[in-house]
Specification:
The chain is α+β, with helices and mostly antiparallel strands. Helices cover 29% and strands 31% of the residues. The strands form 2 sheets. A 3-stranded antiparallel β-sheet has the order 1-2-5, with helices on one face. It is flat and about 55 Å long.
Length: 95
């Protein structure tokens, strides 16, 4: 079966006071299971998820998971850390 790649995620207010999240997937070539004729065009897919009024955190975690965004803060590399401290030092000099 062909794997669909995520093109975009759409978030809209839902009638229940929550949000509807739609995943838009890219079309791919793959095995055509309906006609059993071998490889064929697999149309793009959409996945719809509805989150309730009090499920905002769950909805954000769902979206972050699909985008590959970690919920845990990453430790900065030493070079990035030193660049940040240089930047902060220059800010305090201008005050």
């Amino acid at each position: 079966m062909a794997k669909h790649h995520l093109l975009k995620i759409e978030i809209k207010p839902a009638e229940n006071g929550g949000h509807t999240v739609t995943h838009h997937m890219e079309a791919k070539m793959g095995r055509d299971h309906k006609s059993h004729s071998g490889m064929g065009y697999m149309p793009p897919e959409e996945e719809h998820h509805v989150f309730g009024k009090h499920e905002g955190h769950h909805m954000l975690a769902h979206v972050a998971n699909h985008l590959g965004i970690s919920e845990k803060p990453e430790m900065p590399h030493e070079e990035e850390e030193s660049e940040r401290s240089d930047y902060q030092d220059s800010d305090t000099e201008n005050e």
